[in-house]
Amino acid sequence: MNLKSNNPFLKNKSFSKPAETTVFDEQGRPVQIIDYNETMTVNGAINKSFILLAMLIGSAAYTWWMGVNGQNPMPLAIVGAILAFVMVLIASFKPKYSPYLAPAYALFEGLFIGAISAVFAENYYSEIIIQAVAGTFVTFIVCLALYRFKIVKVTEQFKSIVVASTLAIVTYYLVSWVISLFTSWQPVHYDNSLMSIGISIFVIVIAALNLFLDFDMIETGAKRRLPKYMEWFGAIGLMVTLVWLYLEILRLLAKLSSRD
């Protein structure tokens, strides 16, 4: 069974289509020619991921500034989160528009991240943001190095375990959220108990493992010589995982801090 990354971008069928141009031979028969100058590369996807990251940080700085200066950034953050989700949804169905959707996603997501970060910094301690960013960056670099030097190999069994675990987490979060809306029950991962901390650590590990699947799918896309715009498509997918990882690390640090 060929299970792919749980990331909706990297599951798109466009990852199986090479960049081809149709021409005709002397007999008028169609011939497929691949333009290697306009195809996806691993370095291109990684570079575009860093571009998106820079844009996200720049956007986040604005709502962060609002938060630390006594303004309420949450309305803007909610709008940003909704629009970022819309960009994700459109890109998953129309990857050709990824060069335009990717920057928009980064800017809108940044509004949400900046506001949430300001809230955590105000409710806990200011250094929590730097620690969460550092933890995310170090995790990304370590996972990239482990994948690059083939220390961790993405096998079919590896994919199966990571995808199944990710789906279990998503299901648990969704069900817990729905139940909490209609009852007074509070999910265990909301508090700072040892079990809640353990859940956060588990989720962080799974989020980090998703990076390997994302790297693998980007590399596969490059080997298949997919169109150049798929670099932006893959970059959005990688950013989705990094944002998830950052938020989970932030929550874990908040739980640990509240136990002091």
* Regions with little confidence, pLDDT below 50 for 5+ residues: 1-6, 23-28
Helical/strand content category: mainly alpha
Label the overall shape. Answer: globular
Number of strands: 2
Helix coverage percent of residues?
Answer: 55-70%
For the biggest β-sheet, the strand order reads 1-2
Main beta-sheet annotation: 2 strands, antiparallel
Which percent range describes the beta-strand content? under 5%
Structural Rg: 20 Å
Distance between the ends:
46 Å
Mean pLDDT: 86
Which H/E pattern describes the elements? EEHHHHHHH
Number of domains: 1
Total helical elements: 7
How do the helices and strands line up, and which of them pair or pack?
Elements: E1 20-24, E2 30-34, H1 42-68, H2 74-93, H3 98-123, H4 127-148, H5 156-182, H6 194-223, H7 230-258
InterPro entries: BaxI_1-like (IPR010539)
Protein name: Bax inhibitor-1/YccA family protein
Pfam families: BaxI_1 (PF12811)
What structural keywords apply?
260 residues, mainly alpha, 7 helices, 2 strands
Quick overview of this protein structure:
InterPro entries: BaxI_1-like. With 260 residues, the protein is mostly helical. The protein contains seven helices and two strands; from the N terminus they run ββααααααα.
Describe the structure.
This protein has 260 residues and is mostly helical. It has one domain. It is 70% helix and 4% strand. It has helices spanning 42-68, 74-93, 98-123, 127-148, 156-182, 194-223, 230-258, and strands spanning 20-24, 30-34. It has a two-stranded antiparallel sheet. Strand 1 and strand 2 (30-34) form a beta hairpin. Helix 5 packs across helix 6 (194-223). The longest helix has 30 residues, at 194-223. It is globular and about 55 Å long. It starts with 19 loop residues before the first strand and ends with a helix. It comes from Flavobacterium rakeshii. InterPro entries: BaxI_1-like (IPR010539). This is Bax inhibitor-1/YccA family protein. The chain crosses the membrane at residues 50-68, 74-93, 100-122, 128-149, 161-182, 194-213, 233-254. Keywords: Membrane, Transmembrane, Transmembrane helix.
